Amino acid sequence: MEMYFWLFGTAILFTGLGYYFRKSSERELVVSVVESTIDKLIQDGYLKTRGVGNDMVILKFNDKTD
Fold this sequence. Notes:
two-stranded antiparallel ribbon, mainly alpha, rod-shaped
């Protein structure tokens, strides 16, 4: 029975830690993943762009202009 209390306490502790770390870095993680995904799609040629740096624009898929 004592082991169940120990396991329950550990589960509560790590659930709390996970909740704390998720809250503090969730937005930064999402932004990082989206940015790296879009950059990789541009590198591989799946997304067409116009411009450079902050002036870069992703073109619509049916846009025929280069």
